[in-house]
Amino acid sequence: MSYEKELGAAKKAVSLAARLSQGVQKTLLQSEVWTKSDKTPVTAADYGSQAVVSLVLERELKPATLSLVAEEVDTRDLRKKGSEEFLEDITKLVRDTLASDESYAGSSITTEDVLNAIDCGKSQGGSSGCHWVLDPIDGTRGFVRGEQYAVGLALLVEGKVVVGVMACPNLPLSSAVVEKDDKSCQDNVGCLFFAATGSGAYVQPLNGNSPPQEVRVSSNENLEEAKFLESYHMPIPLHSSIAKKLGITALPVRIDSQAKYAAVSRGDAEMYLRFTLVGYREWIWDHAAGSIITTEAGGVVCDVEGTPLDFSKGKRLDHNRGIIVTTKKLKPLILKAVRESMEEENLRV
Ligand SMILES: Nc1ncnc2c1ncn2[C@@H]1O[C@H](COP(=O)(O)O)[C@@H](OP(=O)(O)O)[C@H]1O
Ligand SMILES: [Mg+2]
Ligand SMILES: [Mg+2]
Ligand SMILES: [Mg+2]
């Protein structure tokens, strides 16, 4: 089945959400970063992006009923006394962003519309039916620092990811792995990655009209020259042991958000490792869009046992521990190094 209509709607929604987030990032003050009950940060861009995606999908895919599994499910803080100004700011962002698109110009958006659009993201996902999966701002920590972040949107059908779209507004068009002082790469940024099952993965400039180009993972098999990625805020000692065992000589490149998946899909790096603290279960929205973009580019996304990620179990990847994103050729070597390193460090799967 072709998902042309869904892909078109998702690209439009994500591009507009990215436009909203770019404006916020430029002027964001530390005092405008809120902390959620789980102690993680959230900003007007996280809520605004979620509202924009929810409203755009709803309008573009009418009369279908939208089922959205999204990160920002709690609007209680926004509805509290004292939050009126923040909510008004978010509403203005959403209104202005939609008005910047010809097809939505003139539509009136109230604070209640924005709250309802955010609340629409409360679906639980699962193994039956169609569910959209959204991370409105992935890598909020990077966003707040003025660095990398992504807007990730995917469509699940019967528990499988069939469409993925990811905007990376600060990612260089050339490569994610560039020297910090390489000005020409730093200036030419903003990528929109997308993929649909069986149709390949593509990238196009986020703010331009250039046609999409197909992306493929790296064909490099020489691990001495390989580059590997990990989270910015969670450097895990096990990652370094695995890389050392593989003979990788370069230091890990640390990037926020699922832009790491996009980087592997484009061949910027050969491997992305994500081991977390014992007991942590990954959210599906941190991986859904990224995983289809990498696999459609010829890559592999699996857990420590080599099993593909299972997106059919609700909001968490309950059945997967540790995530490995790489090329088909390197997968067996990496799995072996992972097993050996975990045994040496007495870590259980
Ligand atoms: N202690 C932790 N361990 C693992 N993942 C965490 C975490 N704290 C936050 N996260 C998740 O990691 C995501 C960011 O990934 P990365 O480190 O690759 O940038 C966050 O997404 P958000 O920024 O959307 O909340 C959040 O869901
Ligand atoms: Mg978050
Ligand atoms: Mg996230
Ligand atoms: Mg997020």
TrEMBL record:
GO molecular function, one term: inositol-1,4-bisphosphate 1-phosphatase activity
GO BP, sorted A to Z: inositol phosphate metabolic process; sulfate assimilation
Organism: Brassica campestris (Field mustard)
Binding site for Mg(2+): 71, 135, 137-138, 286
Protein's job: Converts adenosine 3'-phosphate 5'-phosphosulfate (PAPS) to adenosine 5'-phosphosulfate (APS) and 3'(2')-phosphoadenosine 5'-phosphate (PAP) to AMP.
Family: Belongs to the inositol monophosphatase superfamily.
Record flagged with keyword NADP: no
Name assigned to this protein: 3'(2'),5'-bisphosphate nucleotidase
Gene3D superfamilies, sorted: 3.40.190.80, Fructose-1,6-Bisphosphatase, subunit A, domain 1
Keywords: Hydrolase, Magnesium, Metal-binding, Multifunctional enzyme
EC number(s) stated in the UniProt entry for this protein: 3.1.3.7
